[in-house]
């Protein structure tokens, strides 16, 4: 495990600044307004006055201790956009007033082979996540549901001015989560891509794949979002639920070069992986609680690949943001105030949002 003494920034341990925030206090309790402390700005730190913070389903899982036991009180949020309002003495990449973002990571060792390769999310010494991780001073990291944050400049991203700040916030998680596997598996013109799930992740994936020139198909339980799928750039949208869905899955067998699964429900994996062509790739992004079940024959008989993906490194995330600015890709959002976060959580759980909530940080 990485320790505070081995991490950059550990030379600055003071925690001086009080910041308004909204925090989870127990697994089954509503989030509450609180005041948290942020560390003083160290030599390589930037302080960010947060303007917008997206709500990711991961925030809810973490706040409610559904994946593992959280340490409360905990401020979640890893889709952060704001302006730099202070910089450390050794900061070279950012200046006061710059529009910047922070995604799922707040630090890494910056020294291992993965970090050297720009894959900080795979840090051999332990990536420090934006919330719920162990910070450089040994405290628990606190995320973006707050008015300000302090982050090592090497984990900060430049937000192109062409992107609207509120609609760009979800790109810092949903955007890179979908962009990275598309790039990893060389999606582009002529690639037949299927996106499973048309939610916060899926709708961004459709936009990105379409902007890359792919032929995009959406696979969703129903056709209720078909018009949105086509509007975002898909060429087809098929229902996968009920009898119609069973027939569609049979008819589509062997159709796709790349499938990205965004849903966290357990799927009949043989049926879905069987939708791949020979040497096709199935990327698992959703995180179902139960183990995946798949016959080896489904893979071996057509040399299919089953793999996973988790966000992306800082260089690739910056590449994604620049790509989105060039191609006009943003998330579809509903802007809310801090007082609406608990109601928004219930709507996310009930699949009642198209497609991401973003918090106006001026309301903390």
UniProtKB/TrEMBL annotation:
Domain Enoyl reductase (ER): 26-359
Reactions catalysed: a primary alcohol + NADP(+) = an aldehyde + NADPH + H(+)
Pfam families given in the database record: ADH_N (PF08240), ADH_zinc_N (PF00107)
Leader sequence residues: none
Nucleotide-binding as UniProt keyword: no
A GO molecular-function annotation: alcohol dehydrogenase (NADP+) activity
Enzyme Commission number(s): 1.1.1.2
Protein name: alcohol dehydrogenase (NADP(+))
